[in-house]
Amino acid sequence: MASASRALNGLDNVTPQMRERVIGAAQRLRYFPHTAARALSTRRSDTLGVVLPDLHGEFFSEVIRGSDLAARARGLHLLVSTSHGNEDEAAAAIRSMRGRVDGLILMSPYVDEDVLFENLADDLPTVLINTRIEGRPRVAFCVDNHAGAVAAVKHLAAGGSRVAHIAGPADNFESEERRRGYRDALGGSEDIVIQGDFSEESGYRAGVRFAAMADRPRAIFAANDMMAIGCLLALLELGVRVPAEVALAGFDDVPVARLVRPSLTTVRTDIADLSRRAAERLVAVIAGEDNVEPLLEITRPKLVVRESSAGISNA
Amino acid sequence: MASASRALNGLDNVTPQMRERVIGAAQRLRYFPHTAARALSTRRSDTLGVVLPDLHGEFFSEVIRGSDLAARARGLHLLVSTSHGNEDEAAAAIRSMRGRVDGLILMSPYVDEDVLFENLADDLPTVLINTRIEGRPRVAFCVDNHAGAVAAVKHLAAGGSRVAHIAGPADNFESEERRRGYRDALGGSEDIVIQGDFSEESGYRAGVRFAAMADRPRAIFAANDMMAIGCLLALLELGVRVPAEVALAGFDDVPVARLVRPSLTTVRTDIADLSRRAAERLVAVIAGEDNVEPLLEITRPKLVVRESSAGISNA
DNA sequence: CAGGTTCATGAAACCGGTTACATTGCCAAT
DNA sequence: ATTGGCAATGTAACCGGTTTCATGAACCTG
Questions:
Q1: Of the candidates A80, A84, A122, which has its C-beta nearest B78's C-beta?
Q2: DSSP string, A220-269
Q3: What pTM, to 2 d.p., does this model score?
Q4: Residue B56: per-residue pLDDT
Q5: Per-residue model confidence as pLDDT tens digits over A185-210
Q6: Fewer beta carbons within 10 Å, N or C terminal of chain B?
Q7: Coil, strand or helix: which one is A77?
Q8: Which letter, b or e, does each residue of A197-211 get, where b requires 16 or more Cβ atoms within 10 Å of its Cβ?
Q9: Higher model confidence: residue A312 or residue A172?
C-alpha cells in the first residue's frame, strides 16, 4: 500500500516492475485516489477558493475566468462560492472553505467588513479583490474606483454639460467610491442621483425617469455597465437620441459594452486580468514565495470612449 | 472530543451547558472544522462538481449560475473545473473530482466520448448536459439542437431565401447536430457552409467573406450567438444592411443577443434553467430519491425572432 | 568472506474529524 | 439497599490516503 502510493505519485524509489504492477492494477480496478483523504494527510488540496458576492452577469464570469486561467496553468482547481447578500453569508462561505482549499480569493464589497475579517482564518492564505481593507494588513488587489469615476465624469462634463449619476447599491464599497468620484469630479456637489442596484433593470427604470424629465441632464454616468445599458435601452425606446441628446457612460467594460449600439463609453477595469494576477499572487503566498510587499496593488482603470458619448467634449 | 463534535453538529444528546462550553471554546479559539477530515469520515463533501469545456463567454457563465442556484438553495457548494481542450483533459478533470464532490454535472460536447465514459467512476452520481450519450444508460439533459436548427433555418428560408451556415467546431457534438439540422431543413443538401469555432472572431471572419461574395445568400444561420454577433459586426462595418440585405440568426439566446442592434434572432435554450434542473436532479440521485426515470430529458428549444431577421418571411 | 552501504518494500503512525461502543452517574422501581 | 434503565460522556476504531521508520535483500568494498 505504501509502494502503491509511491508508484502512483511518481516517486523514484520504486522499481519499474513494481510501478507497472501498481498502475496496471489501478487501471484494472478503475481506481481513483480519494481527494479528501489525500488532502487530509498532505494538508494540501490543490484548490483555490473564490468567494464572490454574486454569480450573475458578465462581471463575475470574468472574475472566475481570470482566476481559472491562473489556477489551471498550475494544475490547481477552483472552488467557487457566493455570498449572495450580505457579510454574514460571506463569513459563512469563508468558514466552509477551511480544509477545502489551500487559499482564498475573496471579493466582498460590503461596507461593513468587521464580521468578515473575524472569520478569516489566520492560517488560510487570502487575497482580497475590491474589498475595503482600511489599514488591515492584507494582500489585496483593488481597482481605483474613485479615479475611474472622476475620469468618466470629467469626460462627460467637458464643455460644461450637466452630468447625472445612476448609483449602485448603497451598502456597496465600490458604488460608494464611484459615487464619491462623481461628486469630486463635479467639484464636491452632486447634481442628480438616481439610486440603482447594479442590475440592468434598475438602469432601465432610471432611464425612464430621465426620459420624462423636463430639465434633462446632458449626460449620465452609471455606476456600472449593466445599468448604463438598461438606461440606454429605456432612452432609445422613448425616443431620446444617444449621444446626440444624452451622452452615457458606464463602468467595468464588460464584453457587452462594445457590442451594444451605440457602443458604450465606459471605464475599463480588466477584471479578468486583475483576478488572474490575484490568483497568481495567492499561489505565491501559499508557496511561501511571497515577500508580501507591496500588500496592496491598486490598478488605475482606463477611460474607453465609444459612441455613447461621442461629441460630448465639444458640445 | 466526541461531545465537541456532537455539540457543533447540533445533535440532541448533549447537555445545554456542555454545548455552550464547546461553542464558547470554538469561538474563542476561532475553530473551524476541517472539511477534508469531515468529508473523509462522513463520505460526504456537500459539494457538487461542474465540469465544463470552457469558461469563456456568457454561455458557460449561465451554466454555472443555474447550478449554483440549485446548489446553494440546498446549502451545497460548487466545484468548477474546465476541461479546456479535449476529452483527455475532460477525463483528467473527472478523475480529480473523486472524493472532492458528492456528484458531478458534466458537459462534454466532444465527439469521441469513449475515453470519458471509461473515466466515470461508477460510484459517483453523474448528470450529463448536452453530451453525446449514444444509448449509454446515463441521467442526462439535452437540448434538441437538431430541432432548434431546423426551426431557425426554416424561418430564414421562408419565401425561398438562400440560407448559408457558419458552423461550430468540427469535433463538437452540438455543432454537428446544428449543422445536421441546417442540412435537413434545406431538404438534405447544404448551400454555403463556412467553418467557425464558436468564437466571435471566427464569426467576424465569416462575415467578411460573406460581405465580399458576389452571389451572397439572403440569410445566414450561425451555430451560436457569438459567431452570429461577430458576423453581424463585420457585415455592418462593410456596409451590408441587416436584415434588409442579409437576415441573421444565432443559437443559444445568450443575454447579449437581445442587446445588440439589430437585436439577434436566435434559438433559446435557457441553459441556466437546464443546468439548474440538472443540479436538482443530481441532488436527488445523490440522496437516492431518484427513480432514474426518465434517464434522458430532452428540451425543445424555442425560436426567438428579433430584428436581425425581420421581414424575411415575406421576402 | 565479513561488514557496511544502498535501496526497495512493508508496517505503523498520522492527518482531523465522526460514530459505534463502553463506561459512568443518576434516578426510579423493586 | 440493590438493581435496572437511560442519558451524557469518554474511548477507540475508522475514513483513505501519505510518510516516517524498520526490515531485509542485494550490492560494494576491503
A1: A80
A2: EEESSHHHHHHHHHHHHHTT--TTTT-EEE-SB--GGGGTBSSPPBEEE-
A3: 0.91
A4: 78
A5: 999 999 999 999 999 999 999 999 99
A6: N
A7: strand
A8: bbbbebbbbbbbebb
A9: A172
C-alpha cell at A52: 464572490
Give the C-alpha separation, B294 to B186, whole Å: 32
Q: Tell whether A68 is within 8 A of chain B (Cβ).
A: yes
Q: In sequence order, what DSSP letters do the residues of A79-143 get, joined into one string?
A: EEEE--SSHHHHHHHHHTTBTTBSEEEEE--BS--HHHHHTS-TTS-EEEES---TT---EEEEE
- Mean pLDDT of the B131-153 span: 93
Residue A315 has pLDDT above 60, yes or no: no
Contact B100 A122 (CB under 8 A): no
Is A98 part of the contact surface with chain B (CB cutoff 8 Å)? yes
Distance (Å) from the alpha carbon of A99 to chain B's nearest alpha carbon = 5
Number of A–B residue contacts, CB under 8 Å? 126
Read off the pLDDT of each residue in A210-236 and give the average, rounded to a whole number: 97
- In the predicted structure, residue B136 carries a pLDDT above the cut 90: no
Q: Which three cell numbers stand for residue B285?
A: 440521485
Mean pLDDT for all residues in chain A: 92
Q: What is the DSSP string of B241-295?
A: -TTTT-EEE-SB--GGGGTBSSPPBEEE--HHHHHHHHHHHHHHHHHT-----SS
Q: Could you give phi then psi for residue A205, rounded to 5 degrees?
A: -60, -40
